[in-house]
Specification:
single chain, 14 strands, globular
């Protein structure tokens, strides 16, 4: 921990006692002085706020210095310069019941893109090619795509990607970057695009699906240079990244950026992330972008659903506190900023404003029936937000400010 303290900013944060609830932060916590790290001017200080339209629709509000403000304006005032939004094909059941988790359809993606551009932020569109959560453990085809032949599935990927690109164009919010798929360790559009455990031709099929989506972006970019991201989870796992990107490269898939997810309680020490990033840059001559990361500011729970990380124990030496959250962010941003040849593009904090309000659930009962993931209703992420349980901006948000 000493080395991290030496490289960190000065954090003058008075943290709530262990028994104090996170939604009872004192005024000294909220007014604490935090110095942002020194980063390149073009470093991406991003946020994935895909839950925001749903939270606002349910009455959620956000505050800076006890004054209610628009969430995106608060982020902009703290130095955030890019917004990421996930996109699902049709996150609702056959009888129209929403799946939850933000119900991130095309309308909401465009809404977030508009708000990003209104605040002079860049926009990253994360296309899941599923009706609900897509990650290494599940990559379900959208409803209505299940019976397509492989050739028709490729065409569907192209046509669907074309449709959403044209819709964003019509709304005047062409994305600056596009993810073709989300956390693709296991591939996409299972079983056709699964990356393992079949007949040896897994990456041949997966690559054709990826190429279809990429081609549709390029064919419908309105002359804008849109960068393509391919994104894996487990940022500290060099073996997985080499295996996957070696195979993709051998298939001639054309992309610009290697995307990563890094959650330190799941994905290991920060030193392994650094080593992996440096190796990938040297091996593929591609920049890296941390498109998802987060850290808890408390072990307390804001609703009835258990938190994704609920222990009070430190994570990789970082305390579960506002200052620990800030320290982690300073270290991970500094790490990415200092990668060779400016090939570390930046970070996106995942769901910093997911408040524990009634109805803002990771999944509805209809969503759980669709996905097969059976858990309780509610929010498991509120203790990793950059706002307390009532929507007050935490001092740790200060680390995103650009030094003058």
């Amino acid at each position: 921990m000493n080395s991290r303290i030496k490289t960190a900013l000065l954090l003058m944060v008075f943290i709530v006692a262990g028994c104090q609830s996170a939604n009872q932060l004192t005024s000294s916590d909220n007014n604490a002085s935090i110095t942002a790290p020194e980063l390149r001017d073009n470093f991406i200080r991003g946020m994935d706020i895909s839950m925001l339209p749903e939270i606002e629709a349910l009455g959620g509000k956000y505050y800076q210095n006890s004054i209610e403000q628009d969430l995106v304006s608060i982020l902009k005032n703290h130095g955030v310069n890019s917004i990421r939004a996930r996109l699902w094909v049709d996150p609702s059941s056959s009888n129209g019941e929403p799946f939850g988790g933000g119900n991130n359809d095309l309308v909401r993606s465009i809404e977030l893109g508009i708000r990003a551009h209104q605040n002079d932020m860049s926009f990253l569109l994360d296309i899941h090619y599923s009706d609900f959560w897509a990650d290494p453990k599940k990559q379900s085809k959208p409803q209505g795509w299940e019976t397509l032949t492989f050739d028709n599935l490729k065409q569907k990927v192209y046509d669907y990607t074309t449709e959403i690109m044209q819709a964003h164009q019509a709304a005047g919010v062409m994305p600056d970057m596009v993810q073709i798929g989300n956390e693709l360790n296991g591939g996409m559009l299972w079983p056709d695009g699964k990356s393992w455990g079949q007949d040896g031709k897994e990456f041949e099929r997966l690559s054709q699906l990826l190429k279809a989506g990429i081609q549709a972006v390029h064919d419908n970019n309105s002359g804008k240079e849109i960068q393509i991201i391919l994104h894996l989870a487990e940022a500290g796992n060099n073996q997985t990244f080499r295996w996957w990107f070696d195979e993709i490269s051998a298939q001639g898939v054309d992309f610009e950026i290697i995307g990563m997810s890094y959650y330190p309680w799941w994905h290991g020490p920060i030193e392994q992330v650094k080593a992996n990033m440096e190796d990938l840059i040297a091996r593929y001559n591609k920049p890296v972008l941390l498109v998802e990361t987060a850290f808890p500011f408390t072990h307390e729970n804001g609703d009835s659903l258990a938190n994704s990380y609920s222990s009070a124990d430190p994570i990789e030496g970082y305390q579960i506190s506002v200052s620990g959250q800030a320290q982690f962010l300073v270290d991970i941003m500094s790490l990415v900023n200092e990668l060779p040849n400016n090939m570390g593009l930046g970070i996106y904090y995942w769901e910093p404003a997911w408040l524990p309000i009634q109805g803002a659930t990771w999944s509805t009962n209809a969503g759980m029936e669709y996905s097969g993931d059976q858990w309780g209703l509610g929010n498991s992420w509120e203790n990793q937000a950059l706002f307390d349980f009532e929507g007050n901006a935490l001092p740790s948000l200060e680390v995103f400010k650009q030094q003058e």
